[in-house]
Specification:
The protein is of the alpha/beta class. The chain has 19 helices and 15 strands. A six-stranded antiparallel sheet has the order 2-1-4-5-6-7, covered by helices on one side. It has a six-stranded mixed sheet with strand order 8-12-13-3-14-15.
Length: 554
């Protein structure tokens, strides 16, 4: 359940914390008081897109934090599958928002918004105006049926999805193969040309790097010899380093018997003289043997040009070119045994089709059984919501193609007036009816377990009187087994609250702020009286409100 929600510096809210309870939690207040801000804050804590426009004070950060208590083992396992471990049965989801960025965290660990949404989907279900409008889309009907049947079809749907993916890959390959069959002779000729072109080059991995080094040496031969010659002259020529070291050796040897350190310096100079002599000898030998081979230079240049041409055509390195060669050889072999390949591919497609047909059939059988169950439970739930003598059914029909969800197409059909035929939901339900139908669906789904916290925003849209009373009783029934949080304008619904919060605006230091407070006893009656009588709260209205609370308790 949602234990608490902390909001700071968000829209009209300076800083507030709401501590929710089990059962039915009601949030009420004047239009524009800030009820939608609370819901928006909750959405932010669950990973929805953040905007700097949410900031009350642009110079300070906004902060929202939702604390959930999780005692259901199935939910804990699902959270662990997302690498979220509840600590002391708590999951804390928070969001910090500045004018440049937002940071989301789960139990103190920074996570991306997408993960926050995944975790949030396990912890609560938010139902608002947008969701009941989604019933106009028949695709949503199949999703709701599958949600009702999830205990029996969960793993089967995964199997169907995996099989469909394989089926699509094979059918796409078969279509490509059929197109290739028309032009395979031309393809074989082209492949033979490309294979011969690469094979005749006799490429060796690393060859291009060695040739490039050799080409660099040959193309700079004259300059290299010039600098080697200058270095040799500096070391071995008249007045060069060798002469200077020889002179220094003579000088130090002269004073060797006078100063003890002279022997040490003389040894160092002899070592240097030996190194210089070796250098002069090696350099002189290298220069004597070196020569520019114009023929070899031309060979290297031509070979590099050939390799670079193949690189431009087939790949950036010799290794990639050789991989392309292997791919073309494999493709050519496939074309040369194309009839056999096509026959094998058709057999694979036939096998995948049969397997998918079998899995989709099993999935469809379960859906048909569950559709009947859902229809019966929906009739009961709708009757509780003042749909008297109504009919509800799920019409399933087979598509003439497969999808990742099977081959079924489904649609909710209803009849709200006796004697009339069942018709598509989208064709006959009004806005208020659609809202109650979604509440009925949520009630039925809630009976299947799963998500512990249900949030309803404007469930009272388009209803009043006896229907409003029926909705309030249904919400109270759901709240027996789930935590329900409901934003409402109707006193009939608010009267059923186990916990009632009032959201109201005030002015402080010249600025409008929204505040939230928990109501007790007379405060609750007074708020119901406001909802009943508007600005004029008379004794009669207040008495009516108290009677409504007493009736709700009964």
């Amino acid at each position: 359940m949602l234990a608490s929600l902390h909001v700071k510096n968000l829209a009209l809210i300076d800083e507030e914390e709401i501590v929710f309870s089990k059962g039915l939690n009601i949030l009420s207040g004047e239009t524009g008081a800030g009820k939608s801000i609370i819901l928006g804050a909750l959405h932010l804590s669950l990973g929805d897109k953040a905007s700097k426009d949410f900031l009350r004070d642009a110079d300070s950060e906004a902060f929202v934090e939702a604390v959930f208590l999780v005692d259901d083992e199935a939910t804990k396992e699902a959270l662990r599958a997302l690498d979220v471990e509840p600590y002391d049965d708590e999951v804390i989801m928070s969001r910090r928002i500045t004018d440049t960025r937002s940071v989301g965290k789960i139990n103190g660990e920074q996570v991306p918004a997408a993960k926050m949404k995944e975790v949030g989907a396990l912890l609560l279900d938010i139902y608002g105006q947008k969701e009941h409008q989604s019933l106009l889309n028949t695709k949503r009907h199949m999703e709701l049926l599958d949600e009702y049947a999830k205990d029996e079809i969960g793993d089967l749907k995964n199997q169907v999805s995996a099989c469909y993916k394989q089926y699509k890959a094979l059918t796409a390959e078969l279509e490509d193969a059929k197109k290739s069959d028309i032009s395979k002779e031309r393809e074989i000729v082209l492949l033979e040309h490309e294979i011969n072109e690469i094979e005749s080059a006799n490429l060796k991995p690393g060859e291009d790097e060695e040739l490039e080094d050799e080409y660099k040496r040959l193309s700079n031969f004259s300059r290299t010899m010039e600098y080697f010659s200058r270095a040799h002259e500096a070391m071995a020529g008249d007045g060069g380093v060798s002469d200077a070291i020889s002179s220094a050796i003579s000088d130090i040897r002269y004073i060797e018997s006078i100063d003890d350190r002279a022997s040490e310096f003389l040894s160092m100079l002899n070592d240097a003289d030996s190194i210089i002599s070796d250098f002069n000898r090696e350099l002189s030998s290298y220069m004597a043997d070196a020569s520019f081979d114009a023929g070899r230079f031309n060979e290297v240049e031509l070979r590099l040009n050939e390799i670079n041409r193949l690189k431009d055509k087939y790949g950036a390195t010799i290794e990639i070119i050789l991989e392309e060669l292997a791919a073309r050889q494999e493709k050519k072999a496939k074309y040369e045994s194309f009839d056999e390949y096509l026959s094998e591919l058709k057999a694979k497609v036939d096998k995948a089709t049969k397997e998918l047909e079998n899995l989709c059939g099993k999935l469809s059988d379960i859906r048909k059984k569950k559709a009947k169950e859902l229809s019966e439970k929906m009739k009961e739930a709708m009757s509780d919501l003042n749909f008297l003598n109504s009919e509800f059914d799920v019409e399933l029909k087979r598509l003439d193609y497969f999808t990742a969800d099977g081959f079924d197409e489904g649609e909710f059909v209803i009849c709200t007036n006796p004697g009339e035929p069942l018709r598509p939901l989208k064709d006959i339900a009004s806005g208020g009816e659609m809202s109650r139908i979604m509440l009925a669906i949520k009630t039925v789904l809630a009976s299947k377990g799963g998500i512990d916290t249900l949030i309803f925003d404007e469930i009272d849209a388009g209803i009043s009187g006896r229907t409003a009373q029926a909705v309030s009783e249904k919400l109270s029934t759901v709240a027996d087994s789930h935590q329900v949080i409901c934003i409402t304008h109707l006193p009939q619904i608010a009267a059923m609250a186990d916990t009632h919060f009032l959201i109201e605006k005030s002015v402080a230091n010249g600025h409008t702020i929204s505040g939230i407070k928990k109501l007790y006893d007379d405060e609750t009656a007074y708020e119901l009286a406001r909802m009943l009588g508007g600005s004029a709260i008379t004794e009669a209205v207040l008495t009516n409100a108290k009677e409504m609370l007493e009736l709700a308790k009964k």
